[in-house]
Amino acid sequence: MSISVPATFVTGLVEAEGEAQRPWLDALPALAERYLRRWRLTLDDGAPMHGMGALVLPVRTASGDAAVLKVTWPHVEAEHEGLALRLWQGRNVVRVLDADDANFVLLLERLDHTRVLDDAPLDEAVHVCAEFLRTLAIPAPAEIRPLAAVAKRWVTELPEQSKGIVPDHVVAEAVAACERFGPLARPLLTNEDLHYENVLGRDGTWVMIDPKPIAGDPEFGVLPLLWNRFGEDDVMARYATIVREAGLDAERARGWALARAVDNWIYPELTPACRAVGLALAG
């Protein structure tokens, strides 16, 4: 059961997170093989898949069912992925077959990775994700990292990291939103990384994968739905559609979208969308 880690995964993670990730990458084949043995899995046909932070191996269970073994690079945003998925119980999300949360290893049902919401018409994709924002907002357990703590940190971080990059009035509005809505954030399970590439097909339906759970307002999940597929439409019209169809609070949605726009403005690939949204919402 020899595991070959794609060079593109290694390069991408090191470029994004630095050379400090090399030891984990070096140990990754042995870690994956350990769980193949523990859960009595066999590698199936098909090449290993990956995003930026996880290796995904097509496998078969001992009973012959198709599944995937997902081994994630340990980081705080993914710490409670397995817990969140189990709480959602497979309703519009990928099902968990087994898990070792401490080592960021999940055994998941295998979805149709050739059917991606990112390829669907934008109107359909927006509607599906707005529905996810609405229906997946359930009470979050105490273990999930709180949005209130993120907002408190951003009050000082956003002005420091944005100096000379983001207009001062936009930063001021974002900080004010953190100060206003952070202490009032509701303890609801929210995916802060919901976007169209992380929704795959299952028997004619759409299913969310790879959540980054946070305990807070579902309005915090809006901005990735705007910077993904940016340029295909009037982004502020899309923003209004998401807020309306997801049944979101307009003021919270505005505040959190502003805060996240400022936080992500510094990344070149996100700058155009964050600038457009930030300037429009700040007025």
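[next item in queue]
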Amino acid sequence: MGKRHKNSRLWAVALGLLALAALCVSAAAQENTAKYWIAKGDDLFFNKSNPLEALESYEKAIQINPDNMTAWNGKSMVLDTLSVQTYSKILNLSETKLAKNPQDIEALQTSAMALASLGNREESNQFLKKAIDVYDQEIKDNPKNATAWFLKAGLISILNGSEEAISAYDKVIELNGSKMIDALITKGNILLNLGRYNESIDTIDKAIQLDPENPSVWYEKATYYNVLGKYNESLDAYEMITKLEPEKASAWLFKGNVLKALGRQTDADAAYAKAKELGHQE
């Protein structure tokens, strides 16, 4: 009887261990399903007010099933919440800075950005106008302040549209300072978007003449020809870009796209492979 009792206990322990193992396997199996991580994300977000960990859960669900719309919706919901919290924090910080200095340009511009992101365009525009006023004062104090002209032009473009900003960019170009190339590139892009193609390419070519080893001007030229559907000319620009930035994955990716548009699939695949080798992830 003693031996039988001992054997019974051993069987009980063994069965218990098997049951525990089965539970562990079951739990592990559950953790390998998108449904599990979505439910965990929902619990963390709605019941435990922990958006960061909820985001991690939705991300794991997406890794398991990249086409799971519920997981993507959960991720989007969390990111929206985090964005609102972030922008609210930015506004609070900016408000504190502006209380000390109403002309704090960083706080004015940051407030405008945060309010626009939250959908409050009217109040955002008020901060933009105040920021422009600050730059106007800087320009009044020093009419040759090219940086102030350049930054003012960017705000005018947001507030009143790109065309009104062109005269400010022209002033930057006239001053021939450190922001001249940036002004030419931006002006060229504005003219392209306005459909003023001849003026656009003239502006871009002027930037290239002044700074031929600046990849940004060649990107702008490539974009110009892409818009017009002139892919051979665009390819010439990307050839230059990949010479200037041979280790930049995006340069090879864009070059591959142009080669593909030209029907040169073998060359396009080689460019895509180079982009992947440099770290591009599809």
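[queue empty]
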